[in-house]
Structures are given as structure tokens and as C-alpha cells.
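Re: weekly structure request thread

Next one in the queue (540 aa):
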Amino acid sequence: MSGKLLFKGREGSLLIGLIVTMVIVSIAGAATYYLTTGSSITELFKNNNLKAYYLAESGARYAAHLVQSDLDNGTTTYINALNNKSCTLSPGQFTLTIDNTSNAAYLLLKSVGTLNSGSWFETKREVVYKLTKSFNEPFDPNTFSKNWDVISGHADAATQGGVPLSGDTGLREQAQSGSTVSVVALKWDGAGGTPNPGLPDLLSQWNLSGGLLSYALQVKTAINYQGGKGSYYMVGLSFRLNTNNNTNPDDDKLYGVSYFKSLPPSADTSQTPAWVKSSTFTPIRDGFVYAILWMHNSDGSFTLLDYSLLGFAKWHKQTTYIVGDTVIPTTPNGYYYKCTAVGSQGGKSSNNEPTWGTTVGGATSDGGGSHSITWTNMGTVDNQANSGIVTASGTLVDWSALAVQVDEKYCSNSNDTNCNNGTYRRNFITVYTASPDSSATPAPYPRGTISWNYSSYFKSVKWSGHISGQQLASGSWSNPPAVETVLDSTFTSANFDTIKPVEIGIHGYYDSYSNNDMYFDDFALKLPSNAIAGSYMQYY
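Done, posted below.
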């Protein structure tokens, strides 16, 4: 009996073991199924996340350049059209929202990519672009002291003070008694080291750009010539401006881009301003208007980097001319002419304009008898000449504009023009001019207008001096590109976070202690959008 019982026990044990094994196998199978299914779902969500992000990024990229064109041109066409706009793309859609009012410095462009909308597997991703707005300064008397520091001389925002203002607000600059220099600086860094609300934060820009600072500036300017003034001036934009925390302009370090005019050195007297007597300006002291790029060094010296002659006076009838005077025909033909000989009683032009010869070196006769004039064809005028910047009498057209694009890059060395990487800083500097004159090309750029579309209103300056050995970003001086960008590394944004220089300003160098005879308006500053924030992704 005991044997039978033992046998029955073994049989039971085998049965129990079999059942346990079956249970274990079943559990393992279920776990394997769960793991496989879970892995598939995880992979599915991962793929959906990526697809939703690509949808959002596609929408942001599609809209960004259109919205940026609005910001550059002061319009809202695309901003209004694309706000709350949805677009369906396989396998989902993106929806755009645009916030153009919450922040004075930038516009928020949001794009939400949606996959499997309305289902249990719905996935959303959001991409946000911060696109910088142009900071435009109307020179409001109520906000002038908030936005600008007067570094040297005197300056204010007003509606009166000279013919050029014509009742509209603008910046008036005058030198202090005993000086001929006035400088104002943008007060981007507010009290206590905090950003000035409403103004671009240059330090944040520098940090977000990896320790580089790039921007574009523009301003319009006018000179009061009444009373025989305006024989000497240098007016325009300052950048990389470091005042060494004092109001003495003599030790400032800066680049300047200016409209420049000076009588020849032979006309110097004790009243000639000291700044223009710097030997670096001698090549352009001939009475004509130039666009110039220059530096001011901490030892008080100037360095002229390059220059471009902007225009010539047009020929006038019954006018006295002397040897050395230069004119162009009243209807420009692409050439300019120098007076190389006059009659025994001096030169006086005829009542009727002569027929101008187009052979370089050839002579054109004018006047007659003892007042005869010989005009010699000196060659073709450059890109800027007769573009509406200079009047027929050889003065600067009121409210002519200057613009400068400053791009700072890391380069491998001082000869690197590609600048894809490295630690050597270089400034890529491009200068433009524009005129409100009805004859201006490519189009008039009137006061009260702000645009960053260079091709619509501006001409890039074609440099002709090349006196300081500057390099071009592309091409060569013998075969220059259509847009000439000059490279220089003297002043950069290195240590910007500790120095916090004023960086940007407006300068006026004049022929005397001037009583509000230099005027400016429509100052604008633009930071590159891709450096402000790029894009960031918001997960739902």
C-alpha cells in the first residue's frame, strides 16, 4: 500500500510541476508580448514627436523670412496674413501665431506642428522664433535723455533751430564753446547695469552670439549752410565706440562712417578746425563731398581707412571758375571735367552750356576771349557720384542717409577672409548711402522712412582710396565685387561683458562752435535675428 501511495505522490508531483511550468511559460509569454508592444508604442511616440517637430520647424522657416521682410521694411503685410494661419502637410499640419506687440525689441513667431489630430496618438510640438525689430529713433524731446547720452558738446531733440528741421522733430548737435566736436551715444545699458527698456540689449546679443556683436545702423543728416558756414564737416555714425567713461572726445576709440567736406589746406587759417588738419585727411581736402570710413585712436589721432567721392558740382552759366575747379554737365554723361586753363582775365562760363567731349584727356572750350575756360575730361565718375547725394552747387543734399552693416566674425588669422572658425576677431564693414532727392537712384529715400531693404533705396559705397591696406571680404581692389565689404580688426567687441562700452553713437565735427547747425533724424538700429534666440522647442 505504501508503494502505491508513493507512486501516486510522484504522479501528483509531476502534475503539479507541469502546471507550474505552464503558468511560468504563460507569464513569460505575456511579459514578452507586453514588452514588445510597449517598445513599439514607445518607438511610435518617438517617431511622432520627431514628425511633429519637423512640421513645426517647416512652418517657422516658411514664415520667418516673410515676416522678417515686413520688419525690415516697416510693413505688416505678411504679419497680418500669416497670424493664426494653418497649413496641412502630409501627415499633419502646422499652425502659426505671431505676437508683434508684447515686446518692443522683437517679434515672437510660433509654429505648432500637430500629428494625428483628435486621436489618442495626437502629438504636438512648438517651435518659437524671436525675430528682431529695428529700433527706430524719432528723436522725441520727451524721451531723448532716456535714450541718449551727450558725450561731448551739446545735443537735444527739437522742432526748431534751422531750415533743415522744417518744424519736424530731429536731433540738433552743436559743439561746446572752444570746440568743434559733438558726440551722442545710445544709452543701451540702463542705470545700474540693467538693460534700458525699449532699447536693444547689446550685452544679451553679445552673449547669445558667442561673444560676437554684429548690427546695422542708419541715420539721415543735414547741414545748415546759411551764413557761409559748412565749409568743414564730418557727420555720421560711430560704432565700436569706447569713451573710456569720460566726456573728453580726444581719447575715444571708435570707427566712424561720415559725410565729409573740407576746403583745401591752402585755405587754412587760425579758424580752421583742428580735427580736419590731421594729415590723414589731406587726400580728400579739396572742397568736394565724400563718404569716408575712419578711426579715432585713444591718442587723439585719426586714421582714414578709405573714401569715396560722392559727387561734383554741375556746370553753371556765367560763373567764374579757376584752374582746378571740377564740374559735370548739367545732364550727367558719366564723365567729369577739370578746369585746366583760363583766359588772361580769369575764366567765366558762357551763357550756353558747351558740348562736352567724351574722350578722356580731351578738351572742351567754354567762355570766350579773355574769360575763356578749357575743361579737360578727367574720366568716368564712380558709383556714388551724381546719385542725388550732392546738390548742383556741391553741397550735401538735406537728409541724405548713411548706413553701415557691421558683422563680427571669428577667423583663423589676420589674412583669413572666409572666417568659418578660429579666435581672431574681424569686423566685416559695409557702407551704404541713400538720398531723398527725386533724381536719386535706385529710388528716393525720404525723411521719415525707415527700410533695411538696401537694394530698394541704397547704393553700396565703392571705395577708391585704399590708403590703409584694408582687405576686401571677397574679390580684390583691382577687381572688386558689386558690394565692397572692408575688413578691419583694430576695434572689436572683445571683453564687451566687462567693459560695457557705449558702442554706438552719432557724431558731428564742424567748422566752428556751431549753434545747432548739424542735424540728424531717422536713426535706426537692427540686430541679426538668428543671433537673438534662433529657435527653441516647446513640448506639450
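The longest helix spans residues 2-73. The chain has a mean pLDDT of 83.
Next request, please.
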